[in-house]
Amino acid sequence: MFLAEANRENIVKTVSGLDVKDNEVVMLLIGEDDVPDIDGLICDLNEKGIFFFGGIFPGLIHGEAKFTAGAIIRKMPGIEKPVVVNIKEPDCIRIPDFTEFLKTESDKKYTAIVLIDGMAPNKGLFLSDMLNRLGNSVNYFGGGAGYQNMKKDLCLFSSEGFFNDAAIVVLVKLESSLGVRHGWKKMMGPLVATRTDRNVISEFNWENAFEVYREAVERDSGRKFSEGNFYDLAKEYPLGLFREGCETIGRATVALTANGDIVCGGEVHGNAVVNILGGNKKSLIKAAQMAAEDCRIPEGRRISHCLVADCISRALLLENDYSEELKAISRGIQPADSEEIPEGVLTLGEISSFGERYLEYLNLTAIVTVLYE
Questions:
Q1: Do 320 and 174 share a structural domain?
Q2: Same-domain check for residues 10 and 154
């Protein structure tokens, strides 16, 4: 459900009208251009005894349109109440053991929805620890909350408060099917990231990272980097971390330090094998449709939700053609006669599992998930 006027009173009234049961949880996704009184909202929903969680995002997706204001509101059957994890420092990360959930005998693979502060450190460590707890007992879907200008600010909330440097994990009693695609292709590589510090690359093949990157990008594009325009050109040439048997893991190149270090939208481990990627609007839009087409469900099952986490970088690159990506996702949903409207967020990084593969923090990617009963 999309709510155009997402003030405190409208949200509370709408949530109250959902008749939320004790075993249900409400997800609230809010556009950055018109953020309501979050502290007041938390108080109001707590008074009603409703379990809820949410975040503030650069944009919202409702069907074939995107919005920078408003709210997406979804009610789901929960397994446990939302869990908030502090990820500011490595030693602060305390992930519950989910003992009761893991003891439950079930032939169904339920879903973990994970929202994370897109500007927080230690995202990779958090996801690794969570995978160690839950393993492949669930499918994972989610993304990075925050603001398009990448300011560091409060962006996640639940009954426990309004947070940054945190993640929220919600176990949902619905099965799911995932589609994860980006559509970028190798332009140059492989390179070895011989010196890195979390999300900053200093060297490729023992040479200054930016000098290597600039030579490849300027040669391919026919354009020049100049002072202050790094992202204008770099957004068309992200990096891809090599993974066997699947698309590379996208890393947006978001900024340049004074020392010529490349700042990425996610962590790059030392000695990672990296390709410089290129793409075009057609390949990105086709990939989004393929992600939706990958979300097939068993015959006879009913779709409850179709959720999308789409990187803000894709919207910035596609500009006026971004609506074509959303139309492609709607076309690709299986079954084709489903009445469920795709809804979701533009994210600062995407979170997904790849079948039996590792849980990953991605950039530049379109993730579609269909939740079903």
A1: yes
A2: yes
Q: Quick check: 337 pLDDT over 70?
A: no
**In sequence order, which residues have a C-beta less than 8 Å from that of residue 190 and are 6 or more positions away?**
242, 273, 274, 275
Other beta carbons within 10 angstroms of residue 292's beta carbon come to 23
Query: pLDDT tens digits for 341-367?
Result: 999 999 999 999 865 557 889 999 999
Our count of domains for the chain comes to 2
- 69 and 147 fall within a common domain: yes
Domain boundary among 250, 278, 306: 278
Quick check: 240 and 275 in contact, CB under 8 A? Answer: yes
Q: How far apart are CA 311 and CA 342, in angstroms?
A: 15
How many Å apart are CA 47 and CA 149, to the nearest integer? 34
Higher pLDDT, 57 or 103: 57
**Residues 233-260: tens digit of each pLDDT:** 999 999 999 887 777 899 999 999 988 8
Identify the pLDDT of residue 300.
83
Chain centre distance of CA 168: 13
Q: What digits encode the pLDDT tens for the residues 162-199?
A: 999 999 999 999 999 999 999 999 999 999 999 999 99
| CA pair distance 128, 124, nearest whole angstrom | 6
pLDDT score at 355:
52
Q: Measured in Å, how far apart are the chain's first and last C-alpha atoms?
A: 19
Residue span of the structural domain in which 220 resides:
185-278
**In a shared domain, residues 6 and 88:** yes
Residue 136 CB neighbour total at 10 angstroms: 14
Domain co-membership, 176 together with 70: yes
Do 41 and 142 have their domain in common?
yes
Structure-token match 């989610």, residue found: 142
Nearest to 168 by CA among 78, 76, 81, 82: 82
pTM above 0.70, yes or no: yes
Is the same domain home to 263 and 350?
no
* β pairing state of 350-353 and 138-145: antiparallel
Last residue of a domain, one of 226, 258, 278: 278
For β-strands 207-208 and 200-204, DSSP reports them as: antiparallel
Residues 112, 256 within the same domain: no
Give the model confidence (pLDDT) of 67-85 as tens digits: 999 999 999 999 989 999 9
